[in-house]
Each structure stands twice: as C-alpha cells, then as structure tokens.
Amino acid sequence: MSTSTSPVIGIIGGSGLYQIDGLKDVEWREVGSPFGEPSDALCFGTLEGHRVVFLPRHGRGHRLAPTDINFRANIDALKRSGVTDLLSLSAVGGLREEYPPGTFVVVDQFIDRTFAREKSFFGTGLVAHVSMAKPVCSRLGDAVVSACEGLGVVVRRGGTYLAMEGPQFSSAAESHMYRSWGCDVIGMTNMPEAKLAREAELCYATVAMVTDFDCWHPDHDAVTVDQVVSVLLGNAGKAKGLVKNVVPLLGAHAGPCAQGCHKALEHAIITAPTAWDAGMVEKLSAVAGRVLRR
C-alpha cells in the first residue's frame, strides 16, 4: 500500500460507467485480495495531476449481477492500492416526485435490505463493530455538490438509499412501503459497499443517479426500456464530467478527515489481542493493519 499522505481518489463506477475520460498514465492492473477476485482489474492513472484508481463495479461489459459482486474483494483491493477517498457512482430508481430521472442525489443514509452478501471483513477469531450512524463522509459530499453545481447538474444533498437484493425490481407494494419508510432512492449495490468502506477506514460517499421512477409512480408502466437506457447513458456522461470536476477538489485536501472516517476502527475490535486468530490478522493486513500491528 502507498504510504503517501496525499489523497488517492478511488472511483467505483456503476451501470453505464465503465471508464473515466481524461485519465493519463493509464494502467489496468490485477490486484489480488485474500477475499477473492475483485469485479475487474483496477485502472490506475492521474487526472489533473491527482492519483486516481477506478474500478467498474459490475466489471467491464457489465458481467456481474449485484448479488454476485465480491464487495469485500473490491474494497480490500482499493485499500491495498492506496485509496484514501472513495466515491461511488450508482444508478437508482427515484422514490420521490422531486427526484425525477436525471437527478443526482448525494445520499447520507442507507437502509440495508440485502440478505445474500458477505457484509463484514471481520468474524470468528477477530470480531469488530463499527459505527454506521453517519455512513458517508460529509467532506466528500460537499465536494460532489460543488462539482455538480459547476456542471449545471441537478443535484440533491441528502437522502436515504434503500438497498435491495435484486436482481428483480420491487413489487408495487414494496415500492410504496419503502416510500412510507422515508426512503428517497432505491438501488442494489451500495450495501454492503458502504459498510465495508467504513470498516476499511476509507472516506466514502455515493452519488445516486436516478434513471427512472420506481413502480410506485403512476406513469411507471408507460416508461420504455429505450427511455431508461437513454437516461442511463445521459447520467453516465454527466458522471464523467462530475469525476473530472471533483477529483481536483478531493485531491486538494490535506490532513486527516474531520469526521474521523480514517479511524473508524479505533475502538471497534472487541476480541482480546491474546485471542486474535493469526490467519484473520494476516487476511486483514490491508483493511485493518493500522490497528492490528503490535
């Protein structure tokens, strides 16, 4: 892992975003992880002089369904690659009239309804509990909003992301229930991604890019696949502009995270050091090495 104190910006691209425009010194590199295979090779490069590591969440060509993504390997590989700040881009459905297709939502809360995914790096032999009360880094969120406004992209600050298992979309009853819970957007990929980023002590924020209204909306059935794809591609184009604008803002940051994302594990490990499993300690060398060295 890099020991540099300058930020290294990680970008996880969602549906429609499989590369970043404007990267220089590009190198696609396989990064191994003790948690298995990441979604794809990682793309290393520089943008406006700042180091960037890009990972297409579904793999190039969109090979992986949400449930099949190895989220632990993805976050571990990014951490091993020196990433300090992680921006996640995701296609979502809108659960509010005021979040129409084409809107970017910088969410600040999640409700996790996934059930078939590994959700923690820790486990038997090395148990830890991190706080998810404030699951995203406000500094990254501020930078995203500023970058969006500079592009004229419609952006909403704050909102709750409902993470569902998929791959099927919601029933109408589920969609109305999620609205009654106060959820604003719905997607399939930001959990357990956000939880794992917190365990890895990464500053993390997500941009939820609305492609369509979910099936609660009375006009939902009139929307064609072509229309959704058109919005998806338009969002991907705007996302590339966002990345170009936000990387210099994030790269200019100096010093530790004011929110404390970089020390999320400070008091999280519950297992007594004398009972630590050696295999787990080795496996967690990148994610938790800072607090496991003794």
Descriptive account of the structure:
With 294 residues, the chain is α/β, with parallel strands linked by helices. It has one domain (9-292): Nucleoside phosphorylase domain (Rossmann fold). 26% of the residues lie in helices and 22% in strands. The protein contains 7 helices and 11 strands. It has helices at residues 71-80, 138-151, 172-180, 193-199, 225-251, 278-283, 289-292; strands spanning 9-13, 24-29, 42-47, 50-56, 85-94, 104-106, 109-113, 155-157, 160-164, 185-187, 203-213. Strands 1, 2, 3, 4, 5, 6, 7, 8, 9, 10 and 11 form an 11-stranded mixed beta sheet that branches. Helix 3 links the parallel strand 9 (160-164) and strand 10. It is globular. It starts with 8 loop residues before the first strand and ends with a helix. The model has no long low-confidence stretch (mean pLDDT 93).
Percent range for β-strand residues: 15-25%
As for the CATH topology, it is Rossmann fold
The end-to-end distance, rounded to whole angstroms, is 19 Å
CATH class: Alpha Beta
Q: Which ranges are low-confidence, i.e. pLDDT below 50, for 5 or more consecutive residues?
A: none
The CATH homologous superfamily name equals Nucleoside phosphorylase domain
- What is the 3D form? globular
Please report the total strand number as a whole number: 11
Q: DSSP helix count? A: 7
Could you tell me the radius of gyration in angstroms?
Answer: 18 Å
Query: What order do the SSEs take from the amino end to the carboxyl end, as H and E?
Result: EEEEHEEEHEEHEHEHHH
Structural class, from helix and strand content?
alpha/beta
* Helical amount: 25-40%
* Total of domains: 1
Mean pLDDT: 93
Question: Describe the biggest sheet?
Answer: 11 strands, mixed
Which second-level CATH architecture applies?
A: 3-Layer(aba) Sandwich
